Amino acid sequence: MEQEMMTFKPLSLRPHWLQFSINQLHWLLLCLIVFTVYFYATEFLFRDIFLYVGIFLLLYLLYQVAYLARMEYIVTSDQIIYLHGVISHSTDYMELYRVIDYQQHRSLMQQITGLKTVVIYSGDRNTPVMNIIGMKEDMDVVQEIRKRVEYNKTLKHIYEITNRM
Asked: Which residues contact 52 (CB under 8 A, 6 or more apart)?
């Protein structure tokens, strides 16, 4: 029987910018407190230390913004490519025919902001778990990936054997 060839357009996924606020909320608040103390505690003996700590926190937060901005998940017809990094850029690959299971997770802050994390489990040695963070709640990422996974498993004649009771 001839396998019908399907073509899938590459799907580019980037974390929503609100994910930065969720990930770094405690550091943002600490940075705000440190600079507030620096600007309003003019008689404080160790005032300059607050300036240096604030600058360090600000640089850390800028790095985290750049890291999130450079993060991208590309879902092709046969693999998921995860691009990340600022100073050194890394690329991780997950073959779709190796995907075993999916999960969607929403922390309290993600529920408030309408975001979610999609977790993909695979039999891949290098990338057994991939977290696709900061996806919009209404995007059906799992269903789109699942279609491609099922197609690849059928194309490569891979069948799951389970031992259920």
From this structure: none
- Mean pLDDT (whole number) for 116-143: 95
Q: 1: pLDDT confidence band, cut at 50, 70 and 90?
A: very low
What six digits make up the tokens of 143?
A: 């269903």
User: pLDDT class for 161, splitting at 50, 70, 90?
Assistant: confident
**Identity of residue 106:** R
| Residue pair 55/41 in contact by the 8 Å Cβ criterion | no
Give the max Cα distance, the chain: 83
Own/partner pairs for 125-133, CB < 8 Å, 24+ apart?
A: 126/92, 126/93, 127/82, 127/92, 127/93, 127/94, 130/73, 130/80, 130/82, 130/92, 130/94, 132/13, 132/73, 133/15, 133/19, 133/71
